[in-house]
Amino acid sequence: MAKKQLIMENALELFAEYGIEATSVQQITEKCNISKGAFYLAYKSKSELVIGIMDHFLSELIADVEQSVNNKKLEENLLYQFYFTYYAALQKHSHFAQILMKEQYISFDADLLLNLTKYDKHLNTIIFTMVNTYFDQTDKSMYPDLVYVIKAFLKMYADLIFSSNQIIDLENLCKALVERTTVIAQHATIHIIPTEYFEIHHPAVQVPSKEELVGLLERNMEETNDSVTLESLTLLKEDLHARALPEAVVQGLLKNLRTESSSKWTGYIYEVFVRNN
To answer: At which residues is the DNA-binding region annotated (predicted)?
Structure first.
């Protein structure tokens, strides 16, 4: 197991038991059986560790959602698949989300808020793409409102998942949300949100430079212990310069990354780069 993953997993157990603020770096290092020096080589502070855990969760969520939206075989069930993928990911990581909500940690950590904004931009881009595909018969002036409605549904029912002691039937929930979103898309005629709103308040995702992508690939290569993932990252890095690999091979390598939770985000960012270059 990679050192960062070891630290994250043990820290999560301690956070769940004692809370984020009450958990010390020393408790984390003792549970991991590593020195404080080893901890600080991986993370500069406990706050950076929390951001790292959030990064791991959100990057996996966004990568999974993006993959579901771009799966051509699922176009007829695109909206359902979007909702289901999102909520399934939330349920998978609900323990950490509940810790953050309980302590209101996000509200007073500026770096964490900045990080959340980054992922929100990616989510906006994904939802806009989905709306454009799934509701192609709807007046385009309604698209910003539809994006806002979908994001409102995501938040409202996420609160239900986190606050309810009962197990939520995800299939039924997602079917209901598809029905409600579709009713609005088909029958709403008055748009409230101008197109410029998202351009101003939620600017589009910034496409990484080749140097930034190489840096991301190299960091992922250092952190992974999986030989298939390492080989895929290496080949993709080499192909950034030569662009000689057939498209089918590149997609196969990206598929390898998507099967490993620690490399899903790298695969997603690679695809963002390729689509825009």
So the answer is: 24-43
Task: Supply the DSSP string of 185-244, one letter for each residue.
Answer: HHH-----S-THHHHHHSPPPPPPPHHHHHHHHHHHHHH---HHHHHHHHHHHHHHHH--
Contact predicate 83/178, CB 8 Å: yes
Signed CA dihedral, 160, 111, 41, 20: sign only: negative
Residue 108, both tokens: 């007073």
193 and 56 within one domain: yes
Q: How far apart are CA 140 and CA 54, in angstroms?
A: 34
Residue of 230, 214, 218, 222 lying closest to 41 (CA atoms): 222
Q: Are residues 33 and 95 in the same domain?
A: no
Q: Answer yes or no: do 72 and 191 share one domain.
A: yes
> At which of 172, 201, 230 does a domain end?
201
Residues 153 and 104 in one domain: yes
Question: What band does 150 get if pLDDT is binned at 50, 70 and 90?
Answer: very high
CATH number, domain at 105?
Answer: 1.10.357
Taking the C-alpha atoms of residue 147 and residue 149, their distance in angstroms, rounded to an integer, is 5
Count CB-CB contacts under 10 A for residue 9: 13
Domain extent at residue 191: 47-201
User: What is the full DSSP assignment across 94-152?
Assistant: HHHHHHHHHHTTGGG-HHHHHHHHHHHHHHHHHHHHHHHHHTTTS-GGGHHHHHHHHHH
**141 and 271: one domain?**
no
Average pLDDT of the residues in 157-172 = 77
Whether residues 181 and 119 fall in one domain:
yes
- Token pair, residue 11, equals 């820290």
